[in-house]
């Protein structure tokens, strides 16, 4: 039984890029954004119900902004009673859950309503959402009472569409507060929809390393195609990476694999970790190479040798192999 | 006859060995015995080989001397001369007692080193057991490469041993014990004596003058402890005491120390004063010229002695350092400049010259301490306009290359703007009427197939069934494999170090190593392989070892054919 001092914060980063989801809705009508959001909400509710002290945050990762679906800035947990908003659920559900669900639904509606079509912005801002999640985790950890422990994780739920980048990130951050001081584990669950975008690579890697430093786990639930970046993220921070064969059973996968927190995962039989491809890409062709040439001045990687580094324009001299002198001597003595 | 160039130290006639009469000869490096009438020695042992000697107990009729060698053999000599047997035997024994220790050290040292090395390093010990005890290679080969390394290390560590300093409480540690009737017993060890000599060179001088001409050592020390020099109060020094001069010398030394003062301008000892409480809790500074009572005088005498004692103890430790510097300076005057700019040596020098008023070395070493100290105090290295090492700026032409991840450029699927508009409007429609329906999130069939996929053996769990080799193989097999690897590695190292084969010695060694490898394979490797085969473990465990040994065989074969080709 978790003590009162263990707080587990789960941040779910959901990729809601409308371009991609719209195309997906036309392709496969049985699994659309609504269904995905339902699955995410089930996961969020389960998390909140597991322990009274569990906390939750949901971030929607859009192509124009990253928006907090839950918790709302203007909403405090104590304002539940007497609100007209919360009168919607008459089924006797735990009030926190009903409020949370309604809040999320309203926020996503507002978010989509204010989406404006802009042709050049089609990539989901995944790195930005992850950064926001990390900042939120950091803020919450500062607000804990003395003696409380926090574990957090980020769940990223992502697609990999054929067309432009749509990131569907669900970041779950679990905070668990323990008696023995502030230990914060964050798990970012990223539900990813889109291709890895080259422009966000540096930011993404920075976020990953920051998460690792803060002991925040990043889990990834990939819906369509494998993402090398998310694999790296999960490997580096110690989270789980899973590519789902069946999209309609998203909720089941989320509950089975990503609901337990880091301590409990060691006791469970979960999908094994994938082999991560850490190969570097050469700077000239962007091929993934295993053996290459590295410039000692600027550390740029090339697949072929060239006497001048194209990045920093340093010239290298390669010593030629020595001539075979002993043979000459033999000839001399023979003469 | 044996080499007559050896000097014969003792000859004992009528010594029997193995029921034969003969003569025993003790020479400078060995002991030998020759039978009566014959010219040559039948028994000859070097002193270095003898581990110890034993004599028969006094009551026995037979008077014998036994020599036990390092190898475990023993030789017994029976002294049969009726009248002088005991004397002869004792003479021989005494001489041996003197000679054996000289040779013992040389022989044992190597053996001791080897033993120590084997004890310290369990891996080495295991290797020794595997290779030498099982006769794969001989002990000499094993130690040939190792002893060289260890002897170099030993000499280095011996030279850098630090000198043990003097404990400031060494005089207090003597701790006299009452002797029963009004007497005191002082226990003096050689350590304490050494400390006394090092700290008080005046006492050492007195010792050198008086012992052993005038006084025995015991008398000297008795007088020392009796003298008031040793005891607290030195007021009554009127008596004729050999140590009264020491007291005077100490006073002189202390005075000169005080006069020299501390060379560090940052430390001002003179500003320290005694402040006592006055009436009404104000502070009253006691002036330096106030008259002192007798009690205060004796107190100040004790304090003076304490200070002097501590100063002498410190000086004794640094005196050696100062001597080295002095010698250095004499022969290498330019090094003096180096020392002037450094902090540590100048510190020691100043302290030594000021603490040991009796030392003459201070005259030779007077670097400008004050200036150095002042400079130290006012300058901070890192705040100066440091001209660090000259650096060259990095000039990157295409820095955007770094921001691309290891993602190969793929062709993006571009969507037309119409597509985009369509998708966005579609999604907006959908979400505008979104209401979470959490009771119908997924069909049960989908859920159950997901569970199946996640269960052990399911689609997603395939990779987990492979177990690490370390979990399949029991630990004793693992450790044996490790030993095999170490042993094989050692042999292969010897083998490969022979190439290129330039000298006949290396040729022999190569051939020998090849046969060693074969022997290793047959005696160690094959039984291990059979053992793991019997236990149904995978035989791939030893494939790498086999490969390495096979590579060595191939190389040997190639070298041999080339040698044959060259000869013909």
From TrEMBL, chain A:
Pfam families, per database record: Tfb4
GO biological process entries: nucleotide-excision repair; regulation of DNA-templated transcription
Highest taxon in the source lineage: Eukaryota
TM helices/strands, residue ranges: 159-188
Keyword field contains Cytoplasm: no
GO MF: zinc ion binding
Main location: nucleus
CC terms in the record's Gene Ontology section: transcription factor TFIIH core complex; transcription factor TFIIH holo complex
Keywords of this entry: DNA damage, DNA repair, Membrane, Metal-binding, Nucleus, Transcription, Transcription regulation, Transmembrane, Transmembrane helix, Zinc, Zinc-finger
Gene3D superfamilies assigned to the protein according to its UniProt record, in alphabetical order: von Willebrand factor, type A domain (3.40.50.410)
Subcellular location: Nucleus
Function: Component of the general transcription and DNA repair factor IIH (TFIIH) core complex, which is involved in general and transcription-coupled nucleotide excision repair (NER) of damaged DNA and, when complexed to CAK, in RNA transcription by RNA polymerase II. In NER, TFIIH acts by opening DNA around the lesion to allow the excision of the damaged oligonucleotide and its replacement by a new DNA fragment. In transcription, TFIIH has an essential role in transcription initiation.
Subunit field text: Part of a TFIID-containing RNA polymerase II pre-initiation complex that is composed of TBP and at least GTF2A1, GTF2A2, GTF2E1, GTF2E2, GTF2F1, GTF2H2, GTF2H3, GTF2H4, GTF2H5, GTF2B, TCEA1, ERCC2, ERCC3, TAF1, TAF2, TAF3, TAF4, TAF5, TAF6, TAF7, TAF8, TAF9, TAF10, TAF11, TAF12 and TAF13. Component of the 7-subunit TFIIH core complex composed of XPB/ERCC3, XPD/ERCC2, GTF2H1, GTF2H2, GTF2H3, GTF2H4 and GTF2H5, which is active in NER.
Protein family: Belongs to the TFB4 family.
Protein name: General transcription factor IIH subunit 3
Organism classification: Eukaryota, Metazoa, Chordata, Craniata, Vertebrata
Gene responsible for this protein: gtf2h3
Automatic annotation (TrEMBL), chain B:
Polar residues compositional bias, start-end: 347-357
Similarity remark: Belongs to the TFB1 family.
Keyword Repeat in annotation: yes
Biological function: Component of the general transcription and DNA repair factor IIH (TFIIH) core complex, which is involved in general and transcription-coupled nucleotide excision repair (NER) of damaged DNA and, when complexed to CAK, in RNA transcription by RNA polymerase II. In NER, TFIIH acts by opening DNA around the lesion to allow the excision of the damaged oligonucleotide and its replacement by a new DNA fragment. In transcription, TFIIH has an essential role in transcription initiation.
Pfam families from the UniProt entry: BSD, PH_TFIIH
Main location (coarse class): nucleus
Spans annotated as Disordered: 345-365
SMART domains: BSD
Keywords per UniProt: DNA damage, DNA repair, Nucleus, Repeat, Transcription, Transcription regulation
Subunit structure as annotated in this protein's UniProt entry: Component of the 7-subunit TFIIH core complex composed of XPB/ERCC3, XPD/ERCC2, GTF2H1, GTF2H2, GTF2H3, GTF2H4 and GTF2H5, which is active in NER. The core complex associates with the 3-subunit CDK-activating kinase (CAK) module composed of CCNH/cyclin H, CDK7 and MNAT1 to form the 10-subunit holoenzyme (holo-TFIIH) active in transcription. Interacts with PUF60.
Protein name in the entry: General transcription factor IIH subunit 1
GO terms, biological process: DNA-templated transcription; nucleotide-excision repair
Origin organism lineage: Eukaryota, Metazoa, Chordata, Craniata, Vertebrata
Location(s) in or outside the cell: Nucleus
Keyword Transcription attributed: yes
Domain annotation BSD: ranges: 99-154, 180-232
Cited CDD domains: PH_TFIIH
Organism: Astyanax mexicanus (Blind cave fish)
